[in-house]
Amino acid sequence: MNDFRPTDSPPCASDELRAQCTQMPNSQQDLPPLRSTLDLERLLEFEFVRATENAALQAIHWLGRGEKELADAAACAAIYGVFDLLDICGEVVIGEGIKDNAPGIFVGEHLGTWKPGAPHFDIALDPIDGTSNIAKGLPNSIAVIAAAQVPAGAPSAMKSLPSFYSHKMAYGPAVKQALTDLGNPCLLDLPMAEVIAIVAKALGKHERDVVICTMDRPRHGEIIAAVRQTGAALRMVTDGDIAAAVAPSLPGTGVDLYVGMGGSPEGILAAAALKCLGGDMQLRMWFHNDEHRAEVAAQVAPEELDKVFCVDELIIGDSALFCATGISESALLPGVQFIGHQVQTHSILMRARSGTVRRINALHNLDKKIVPLRPEA
Q: Taking a C-beta distance cutoff of 8 angstroms, is the pair 306, 14 a contact?
């Protein structure tokens, strides 16, 4: 099995970042107010995608081996390895491993060197969205990171929800505009037939041609039945709803609407991507039993317990970065491919302030590739 281990210290953006910062004018009159912030994001975004690439390279070795926790641990080590070299103050506000105590990068952890003066980012991540798929050798798994720069004086830039699950509907810019024109009705409370009619009209489609994506779960039985009754097309995924929620905002995915009760952390990650793409989401915490509802009620303000959040309430301010690398093939990205002594990865990288979306097709030479890994404790 190929195992990419560090043999020396690979180059990192920290030196370039420091050099850039020292070249910035001292006077605010010499520079538009957001210039330095924008430049920092532009430089750092490629370090974030390097982290997801390395996570995918490490995780792919566990495809189909029935060891989802070992796959997750390998991806985590690769992400830690990149951030250990990066001069930022990164705080994990959306982590993973909460639901099943799996290995993970947890809420409250610090990523980056935290050197004085380094930029402060809220970070949301899932080293493998779709760990069960990795273990079973199935499609639809990605490594994903989102980040938002915390405005000066603000406590955070990302909303953290304490519920395990949330009820979500995610859609693209055309549907977002149509909902605005309708006065922003709550889709989560409408019958699926009405929701599909709104989506079809917004996209200029017949209702039978609308494609709805959801996860194949018993809890989605009523949603599945309602979609089928309308005659709309249904696409079900076994795991990994970040890619599914982002898909309606990207052209060429063949998905028009995502709906379902999926992980709350995954909802925040998807919201960061939708902010970059101009799409939107309606999200409300969902409780699988009364005990969990009571537990969450003790942690949030009463008005938030049943509140419907949109993207701008989940990702606060104008900063958002989102990057993901395919591990096994999904609606969002192709998976990792071995080609002789090379590995091909496919990533997507986007930024809200510029609206730029990059698709990065990279070839990694196994004879030269160095993946920095944090040593096991």
A: no
Supply the mean pLDDT for the chain. 88
pLDDT digits (tens, 9 = 90+) for 96-115: 645 455 678 988 999 999 99
133 shares a domain with 267: no
Q: pTM, whole model, 2 decimals?
A: 0.85
Decide: 364 and 343 in contact? Cβ < 8 Å.
yes
174 shares its domain with 267? yes
Q: How many domains would you assign to the chain? A: 2
Residue 353, domain member (yes or no): yes
* Contact call for residues 94 and 160 (beta carbons, < 8 A): yes
- Count how many residues are written for the chain: 377
One-letter amino acid at 14 equals S
Q: Is 306 in the same domain as 324?
A: no
Do residues 354 and 277 lie in contact, with contact meaning Cβ atoms separated by under 8 Å?
no
If asked whether residues 137 and 169 sit together in one domain, one would say: no
364 neighbors 70 (Cβ within 8 angstroms):
no
Structural domain harbouring 290: 165-314
Strand, coil or helix: 30: helix
259 and 138 co-located in one domain? no
Tokens of 363: 């070839």
**211-215 vs 233-237, strand pairing mode:** parallel
